[in-house]
Amino acid sequence: MPIFISYSHKDKVFVDKLALQLVRRNVNVWVDRWELSVGDSLLEKVQDAVDGASALLVILSKNSVESEWCKKELSSGLLRELEEKRVVVMPVMLEDCNVPIFARGKMYADFRDNFDDGLRVLMEGVAKITNPSLARFIEPTYHTDYSIDWGDVNGDFAIILNFIQIPAKQPYTCLTNIEILANAFATDIFHKNTKENGLEEAKLHILGVLNKYISFHSELKAILADEKEGIFRFKINGSSKLEKYAVRIGVRRLGEDTGRDILVNVTGLVAESFNHMSKVLRKSALN
Fold it and tell me: Which of 1, 73, 96, 208 is most solvent-facing, going by the fewest CB within 10 Å?
């Protein structure tokens, strides 16, 4: 989903320049003057856009910090940030101004002296919240790095999920690799979804099929006693019996042998990746 740009219309020259640069870098943005039509309900349309955005870019200027409309947009973004426990509001410093309290402890993209430098910092921040195929999940005692790869295997579409779990105080890591191979019918569905909804939505559909199957049919946990890979193989159906996927899951440990078995919750890994992609794309995790 797009990134919402909150700004004062008095700063529209800068905002248009910034938005165009983001679009050229394949970032989907929502700017009110680009999206609203005559007769639209301003309050309803803007609120829906704020609620559905991946993030809010808040343009900080002398004009915006005095704007009541900008303050309302900012409040909605901060509320989402508290509810979702992730970065939603991203400050962009256009000029020296009375910075709102919320932004004083945040890293901001600084455009005051150099546009290109500000854009580079902004793109680094945007990438963390707009890439559904890369993420880091942080738990109290470990973190998990995750990525999705995809491609063609003998004419059929395949997705590969990779997870590396890194404990904070243990001398080992765990690697989980999940391969999902679509049959010809499912491959056709993927290409149709890509054409109609985009590549990421098409990948999310396949990940959702796997997540739903594991959630309702089994709880996959691998017990690793040595260096050998633990392997699961099974087949699942999509919304149609003709839509089939062959799944291979491999789990292994790397590093020092502590003499203790390691339990890897594969079901939880799949759910985390599906929820991450859903949030980035603003899809419901129940779909």
Answer: 96
Q: Where are the domains of the chain?
A: 3-130, 134-281
pLDDT in tens, 111-146: 999 999 999 999 888 877 777 788 888 888 999 999
- Tell whether pTM > 0.70: no
As a residue count, the chain comes to: 287
In sequence order, what are the residues at sequence separation of 6 or more whose Cβ sits closer than 8 angstroms to the Cβ of residue 145?
A: 135, 136, 163, 164, 166
